[in-house]
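Box S1 | Example of a co-folding query
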Amino acid sequence: MIIDCHVHTGPQFNTWWKNIIKSEKEFCAYLKKCGVDKAVLQGSSSQLRYKNIKDVTNGNKYMLDFSKKHPGKFIPSVFVTPAYLKESLNEMELYRKKNNVVWIGEMLNYTGDYSYDSPDCHKLFEKAIELDMIVCIHAEQNEIDNVLRKYPAMTVVLPHPGLSRLEINNRIDLAVKYKNTYLDLCGYGADRMGNVEEMVRRLGDDRILYGSDFTVNDPGVVIARVRNALIPQKSKEKIFYKNILRLLKSKSFSF
Ligand SMILES: [Zn+2]
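Box S1 (continued) | Returned holo structure for zinc ion
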Protein backbone atom coordinates (compact mmCIF):
# COMPACT_ATOMS: atom_id res chain seq x y z
CA MET A 1 0.00 0.00 0.00
CA ILE A 2 1.12 3.55 -0.69
CA ILE A 3 -0.45 6.64 0.88
CA ASP A 4 0.67 9.99 -0.49
CA CYS A 5 0.56 12.66 2.23
CA HIS A 6 0.82 15.55 -0.20
CA VAL A 7 -1.17 16.03 -3.40
CA HIS A 8 -2.88 19.11 -4.83
CA THR A 9 -6.13 19.25 -6.69
CA GLY A 10 -8.99 21.72 -6.68
CA PRO A 11 -11.14 24.08 -8.70
CA GLN A 12 -8.26 25.57 -10.65
CA PHE A 13 -5.73 22.80 -10.61
CA ASN A 14 -6.17 22.14 -14.29
CA THR A 15 -5.13 25.70 -15.16
CA TRP A 16 -1.61 24.96 -13.94
CA TRP A 17 -1.19 21.61 -15.60
CA LYS A 18 -3.97 21.78 -18.17
CA ASN A 19 -2.03 20.06 -20.92
CA ILE A 20 -1.10 17.12 -18.71
CA ILE A 21 -3.84 16.54 -16.15
CA LYS A 22 -7.09 17.78 -17.60
CA SER A 23 -9.75 16.41 -15.31
CA GLU A 24 -10.49 14.78 -11.98
CA LYS A 25 -10.57 11.47 -13.80
CA GLU A 26 -7.07 11.97 -15.16
CA PHE A 27 -5.90 13.11 -11.74
CA CYS A 28 -7.09 9.86 -10.19
CA ALA A 29 -5.80 7.78 -13.10
CA TYR A 30 -2.28 9.18 -12.82
CA LEU A 31 -2.11 8.47 -9.10
CA LYS A 32 -3.27 4.93 -9.79
CA LYS A 33 -0.71 4.52 -12.56
CA CYS A 34 2.03 5.46 -10.07
CA GLY A 35 0.73 2.95 -7.53
CA VAL A 36 -0.66 5.49 -5.06
CA ASP A 37 -3.66 4.00 -3.25
CA LYS A 38 -4.73 6.90 -1.06
CA ALA A 39 -3.71 10.53 -0.68
CA VAL A 40 -4.06 13.64 1.46
CA LEU A 41 -5.65 16.46 -0.54
CA GLN A 42 -3.74 19.63 0.28
CA GLY A 43 -4.73 23.14 -0.76
CA SER A 44 -5.67 23.75 -4.36
CA SER A 45 -4.02 26.35 -6.54
CA SER A 46 -7.02 28.65 -6.09
CA GLN A 47 -6.52 28.41 -2.33
CA LEU A 48 -2.75 28.66 -2.33
CA ARG A 49 -3.01 31.81 -4.45
CA TYR A 50 -6.33 33.01 -3.07
CA LYS A 51 -7.71 36.34 -4.21
CA ASN A 52 -10.57 36.49 -1.73
CA ILE A 53 -12.17 34.51 1.08
CA LYS A 54 -14.40 32.66 -1.38
CA ASP A 55 -11.32 31.05 -2.96
CA VAL A 56 -10.47 29.72 0.48
CA THR A 57 -13.91 28.50 1.54
CA ASN A 58 -14.90 27.14 -1.88
CA GLY A 59 -11.63 25.23 -2.01
CA ASN A 60 -12.25 23.69 1.39
CA LYS A 61 -15.69 22.59 0.29
CA TYR A 62 -14.27 21.17 -2.93
CA MET A 63 -11.72 19.07 -1.00
CA LEU A 64 -14.38 17.64 1.27
CA ASP A 65 -16.77 16.90 -1.60
CA PHE A 66 -13.95 15.36 -3.65
CA SER A 67 -13.04 13.01 -0.81
CA LYS A 68 -16.68 12.04 -0.35
CA LYS A 69 -16.96 11.31 -4.06
CA HIS A 70 -14.12 8.79 -3.77
CA PRO A 71 -14.76 6.98 -0.48
CA GLY A 72 -11.69 5.51 1.19
CA LYS A 73 -9.32 7.18 -1.27
CA PHE A 74 -8.68 10.72 -0.15
CA ILE A 75 -8.03 12.47 3.13
CA PRO A 76 -9.43 16.02 2.97
CA SER A 77 -7.71 19.04 4.48
CA VAL A 78 -8.78 22.50 5.45
CA PHE A 79 -6.81 25.45 4.09
CA VAL A 80 -6.26 28.42 6.40
CA THR A 81 -4.54 31.78 6.18
CA PRO A 82 -3.99 34.65 8.64
CA ALA A 83 -5.16 36.98 5.85
CA TYR A 84 -8.67 35.81 6.77
CA LEU A 85 -8.08 34.94 10.38
CA LYS A 86 -11.62 34.93 11.73
CA GLU A 87 -12.95 32.92 8.80
CA SER A 88 -10.01 30.51 8.95
CA LEU A 89 -10.61 29.82 12.64
CA ASN A 90 -14.27 29.20 11.84
CA GLU A 91 -13.38 26.86 8.99
CA MET A 92 -11.12 24.85 11.29
CA GLU A 93 -13.88 24.46 13.89
CA LEU A 94 -16.48 23.60 11.29
CA TYR A 95 -14.43 21.06 9.34
CA ARG A 96 -12.99 19.38 12.41
CA LYS A 97 -16.21 19.17 14.41
CA LYS A 98 -18.71 18.51 11.65
CA ASN A 99 -16.68 16.44 9.21
CA ASN A 100 -13.75 15.14 11.25
CA VAL A 101 -11.19 16.79 8.98
CA VAL A 102 -7.88 16.45 10.83
CA TRP A 103 -5.43 17.94 8.33
CA ILE A 104 -4.61 21.63 7.85
CA GLY A 105 -2.64 22.69 4.84
CA GLU A 106 -0.66 23.26 3.04
CA MET A 107 0.18 26.53 4.75
CA LEU A 108 2.18 28.55 2.27
CA ASN A 109 3.33 31.94 3.50
CA TYR A 110 5.20 33.04 0.39
CA THR A 111 1.99 33.35 -1.59
CA GLY A 112 0.11 34.94 1.31
CA ASP A 113 3.04 37.16 2.29
CA TYR A 114 2.88 36.53 6.04
CA SER A 115 5.17 35.24 8.76
CA TYR A 116 4.53 31.97 10.59
CA ASP A 117 5.95 33.62 13.67
CA SER A 118 3.30 36.36 13.84
CA PRO A 119 0.43 36.90 16.31
CA ASP A 120 -2.29 36.00 13.79
CA CYS A 121 -0.54 32.84 12.72
CA HIS A 122 -0.03 31.93 16.37
CA LYS A 123 -3.82 32.05 16.79
CA LEU A 124 -4.18 29.50 13.99
CA PHE A 125 -1.57 27.25 15.60
CA GLU A 126 -3.23 27.53 19.02
CA LYS A 127 -6.54 26.55 17.45
CA ALA A 128 -4.88 23.60 15.70
CA ILE A 129 -3.59 22.37 19.07
CA GLU A 130 -6.98 22.90 20.71
CA LEU A 131 -8.69 20.90 17.95
CA ASP A 132 -5.88 18.30 17.88
CA MET A 133 -5.20 18.69 14.15
CA ILE A 134 -2.15 18.08 11.96
CA VAL A 135 -0.61 21.17 10.33
CA CYS A 136 1.36 20.91 7.09
CA ILE A 137 3.63 23.95 6.82
CA HIS A 138 5.75 24.84 3.81
CA ALA A 139 8.60 26.63 5.55
CA GLU A 140 12.24 27.52 5.41
CA GLN A 141 14.43 26.44 8.31
CA ASN A 142 14.91 29.79 10.00
CA GLU A 143 11.23 30.72 9.98
CA ILE A 144 9.92 27.48 11.48
CA ASP A 145 12.43 26.75 14.24
CA ASN A 146 10.96 29.45 16.48
CA VAL A 147 7.40 28.25 15.84
CA LEU A 148 8.23 24.65 16.70
CA ARG A 149 9.95 25.79 19.87
CA LYS A 150 6.89 27.85 20.86
CA TYR A 151 4.40 25.09 20.04
CA PRO A 152 6.00 21.75 20.92
CA ALA A 153 2.53 20.21 21.34
CA MET A 154 1.51 21.00 17.74
CA THR A 155 1.62 18.08 15.30
CA VAL A 156 3.50 19.43 12.29
CA VAL A 157 4.35 17.97 8.90
CA LEU A 158 7.23 19.67 7.12
CA PRO A 159 7.28 19.05 3.36
CA HIS A 160 10.36 19.36 1.11
CA PRO A 161 13.56 17.87 2.58
CA GLY A 162 15.76 20.63 1.10
CA LEU A 163 17.96 21.14 -1.92
CA SER A 164 21.40 20.73 -0.38
CA ARG A 165 22.88 18.24 2.04
CA LEU A 166 23.05 21.06 4.59
CA GLU A 167 19.34 21.82 4.22
CA ILE A 168 18.39 18.16 4.51
CA ASN A 169 20.56 17.78 7.60
CA ASN A 170 19.00 20.86 9.18
CA ARG A 171 15.54 19.48 8.50
CA ILE A 172 16.47 16.23 10.22
CA ASP A 173 17.85 18.23 13.17
CA LEU A 174 14.47 19.94 13.56
CA ALA A 175 12.57 16.66 13.62
CA VAL A 176 15.07 15.14 16.07
CA LYS A 177 14.56 18.15 18.36
CA TYR A 178 10.75 18.42 18.08
CA LYS A 179 9.04 15.10 18.69
CA ASN A 180 5.70 16.06 17.13
CA THR A 181 7.29 16.97 13.82
CA TYR A 182 7.11 14.70 10.77
CA LEU A 183 9.15 14.94 7.58
CA ASP A 184 7.29 14.71 4.27
CA LEU A 185 9.60 13.61 1.45
CA CYS A 186 7.86 15.57 -1.32
CA GLY A 187 9.26 18.31 -3.50
CA TYR A 188 12.78 19.63 -3.63
CA GLY A 189 15.33 17.24 -2.25
CA ALA A 190 13.06 14.24 -2.75
CA ASP A 191 15.39 12.64 -5.28
CA ARG A 192 18.66 13.28 -3.42
CA MET A 193 20.71 10.16 -2.86
CA GLY A 194 21.11 9.50 0.84
CA ASN A 195 18.20 11.68 2.02
CA VAL A 196 15.98 8.84 3.25
CA GLU A 197 18.89 6.79 4.59
CA GLU A 198 20.14 9.73 6.66
CA MET A 199 16.65 10.42 8.01
CA VAL A 200 16.24 6.82 9.12
CA ARG A 201 19.73 6.72 10.62
CA ARG A 202 19.35 9.91 12.67
CA LEU A 203 15.61 10.26 13.25
CA GLY A 204 14.43 6.67 13.09
CA ASP A 205 11.72 5.48 10.73
CA ASP A 206 8.55 6.53 12.61
CA ARG A 207 8.27 10.14 11.52
CA ILE A 208 9.02 10.04 7.80
CA LEU A 209 6.08 10.21 5.38
CA TYR A 210 5.91 9.50 1.69
CA GLY A 211 4.59 12.55 -0.17
CA SER A 212 4.87 13.68 -3.78
CA ASP A 213 3.44 17.20 -4.29
CA PHE A 214 1.52 15.88 -7.30
CA THR A 215 0.26 17.61 -9.52
CA VAL A 216 3.36 19.79 -9.23
CA ASN A 217 5.69 16.78 -9.16
CA ASP A 218 5.53 13.19 -10.36
CA PRO A 219 4.60 10.76 -7.53
CA GLY A 220 6.84 8.10 -9.07
CA VAL A 221 10.06 9.97 -8.32
CA VAL A 222 9.77 9.72 -4.53
CA ILE A 223 8.40 6.17 -4.75
CA ALA A 224 11.56 5.14 -6.64
CA ARG A 225 13.82 6.86 -4.09
CA VAL A 226 12.13 5.11 -1.15
CA ARG A 227 12.05 1.72 -2.93
CA ASN A 228 15.74 1.97 -3.84
CA ALA A 229 16.87 3.38 -0.50
CA LEU A 230 19.34 1.30 1.48
CA ILE A 231 17.06 0.87 4.49
CA PRO A 232 15.17 -2.15 5.85
CA GLN A 233 11.95 -3.24 4.14
CA LYS A 234 10.01 -2.60 7.35
CA SER A 235 11.15 1.05 7.30
CA LYS A 236 9.89 1.39 3.73
CA GLU A 237 6.47 0.09 4.76
CA LYS A 238 6.35 2.64 7.56
CA ILE A 239 7.28 5.48 5.19
CA PHE A 240 4.82 4.42 2.48
CA TYR A 241 1.75 3.97 4.68
CA LYS A 242 2.11 2.74 8.24
CA ASN A 243 3.32 6.03 9.72
CA ILE A 244 0.57 8.12 8.20
CA LEU A 245 -2.11 5.60 9.15
CA ARG A 246 -0.86 5.72 12.73
CA LEU A 247 -0.77 9.52 12.66
CA LEU A 248 -4.31 9.81 11.26
CA LYS A 249 -5.58 7.27 13.75
CA SER A 250 -4.03 9.24 16.59
CA LYS A 251 -6.32 12.12 15.57
CA SER A 252 -9.33 9.76 15.35
CA PHE A 253 -9.53 9.99 11.59
CA SER A 254 -11.16 7.13 9.76
CA PHE A 255 -11.95 6.75 6.08
ZN1 LIG B 1 2.61 21.31 -1.94
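The longest helix spans residues 233-250. Strands lie at 3-8, 38-42, 74-75, 77-78, 103-108, 134-138, 155-159, 181-184, 208-209.
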